Amino acid sequence: MSETAKPSIWQIFKSFFRRKPVEPKVTTLNGVWWEQRHSIYRLGLTSDAIQQLGKVSFADLIVAPDDELDQDEDIIEVESDKAVQNFKTPFAGTVVDVNHFLVDNPEAINSNRQLENWVLDIRIDFD
To answer: Which of 39, 99, 105 minimizes the C-alpha distance to 75?
Structure first.
């Protein structure tokens, strides 16, 4: 009869720190994804929306930091070989930061790295 060895305190301690970090919960609506980052929400374009657009050639960021947005207000206009598409914010809030890299390098959207192709950070206004 063999006895199962119990892990040492050190093994338990090491295994605790080897755990994978918890992935942020990403929610999507109408081609826009968002994830909560403390009191700020990061918004971007979903992989599905990017794939449906085709090859992106131009992106116009319609918002700037400190802009106050209403729900369903345009945040970015993207032009591709298939269409021109405006994407909207799913909720009202105040823009905290924008990703100017996407405007200067719209071809980066084509890489379809969803979490890297964020558009803006927004603080939701709770009334």
So the answer is: 99
